[in-house]
Specification:
Elements lengths: L9 H4 L23 E2 L3 H8 L1 H13 L2 E2 H8 L3 H13 L3 E3 L10 E4 L4 E2 L8 H29 L19 H17 L44 E4 L5 E4 L1
Parallel strand pairs: 1-5
Antiparallel strand pairs: 2-4, 3-4, 6-7
Helix pairs in contact: 2-6, 3-5, 4-5
Length: 248
């Protein structure tokens, strides 16, 4: 997704990330959260599904406000194309002008934050499903390409050791999975804070969440071989630091 759900602007909410050393770090945030907005307009989804617009929106989200010329240079496009795509994104509320004065008639654009959600698959029309499939295909491919590029370019950067990665399995009911997702969004929001309260050595960290049910078995699966280093009922998962963790 170009703008993942829960990407709200902490500066507009007036809260800061609590100090982890304090007990209240895990306390519920008393600040009200903006209500999620469902993107059910097919035209808006089509506008967002355009690959170049996803690149531009991601660039604005990661690097901050930019002009059409800046985006053109960064993404290898021409200024006319970036200007057109910016206007289309602005039409549906994904970007907006910052109002900052530039050189001459230079216009600066920024990504508009918000908790945007897509309609559940069961409520999507056949045409909307095609658009969503296209949108997700480009978004996931772009995320994977960016992740691999960052790994290649990390070199001796101290942040090269900070690529948290986890694969796991849990057994949940459908309501529990929805609750799990909302708790994930709440965790993200708890760590957001205004730029003025952000330390100088902080970096923008991209987060992606993907959870899906395993395919239902149509036939009884054969019993797995039990090796000395595994036990029935356990699922060993390897974390990014080489440790094996067990998830229920």
């Amino acid at each position: 997704m170009a703008q993942e759900p829960g990407a709200t602007d902490p500066a507009e909410q007036g809260h800061t990330r609590p100090d982890p050393a304090k007990p209240e770090h895990t306390a519920p945030d008393p600040e009200p959260r903006p209500a999620p907005v469902e993107l059910s307009d097919l035209a808006a989804l089509k506008a967002l599904a355009q690959p170049r617009r996803q690149w531009m929106l991601q660039h604005l989200t990661v690097h901050g406000p930019a002009t059409s010329a800046t985006l053109a240079r960064a993404l290898g496009l021409n200024t006319g194309a970036t200007s057109y795509h910016l206007r289309e994104l602005a039409r549906y509320g994904f970007v907006e002008e910052t109002g900052a004065a530039g050189h001459g008639r230079e216009r600066w654009w920024r990504a508009v934050p918000g908790d945007r959600r897509f309609p559940p698959r069961s409520r999507q029309s056949p045409e909307m499903r095609l658009v969503m499939d296209e949108l997700n295909h480009h978004a996931y491919a772009a995320d994977l390409e960016l992740f691999e590029q960052l790994q290649r370019d990390a070199a001796d950067d101290p942040w090269a050791d900070a690529f948290p990665y986890s694969r796991g399995t849990i057994r949940l009911t459908l309501p529990e999975l929805r609750e799990f997702f909302e708790e994930y969004i709440a965790l993200l929001n708890r760590y957001k804070r205004p730029e003025a309260d952000t330390p100088a050595d902080a970096r923008t960290v991209l987060t992606r969440f993907l959870a899906f049910p395993a395919q239902a078995a149509s036939v009884e699966a054969p019993a797995p071989d039990v090796s000395p280093d595994s036990a029935p009922g356990s699922t060993p998962d390897t974390a990014d630091d080489g440790r094996e963790t067990e998830t229920p």
